[in-house]
Amino acid sequence: MAQDTRPCMGCGELIYRTVAVAPIRHYCTPDCRPRCSIDGCEKVRHGNVYCGAHHTRWKRTGDPLTPLERQHNIGECGAEGCDQPMRKTGWCASHYQQQKTTGKPPGPFKYKWGDGGYVSTHRWLRRRLGPPADHVCVDCGDPAAEWSYEHTDPDELVETSKGPYSRNPEHYSPRCVLCHRRFDRQYHRSKP
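The chain above was modelled as a monomer; its predicted structure follows.
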């Protein structure tokens, strides 16, 4: 047998090398590849014995015939003390990512949307209230561009580089850029 041919491991026909530097294939067509060893499964083998689906089930549970049980993402996160909505495998997106990154079951995860500073609170507002462009400016009636803090929250927070803000979405109104700047200037002028 020449170096440029090999018998197909399925049907025995000779397979010729297609490119001088490429390895010779083991099977001449996909139909020649061996099938999954599970009765009734016609998928091509993934490993030594099973197709990709049965191999994954075997790795997860130890039994390739275990049916897949999909969890419905309804309710709150299963992690203790977390009230965020469930996203994947019984956890919120943050706890799922924590488990995926560390490989350990999720522990307490303290950060929630809006718990950060000025910038993170404004991102949270866009998720909670929607884009301001879907609203009209409360002052002039033009399309809004930003969520504007009304400076009415008794629990107001202040970030030195950005200014005052609130974590309560009830204290925000949609404004266009011009009206937002004008409103903030008037507030700062009226402060003692």
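The chain is about 25% helix and 10% strand.
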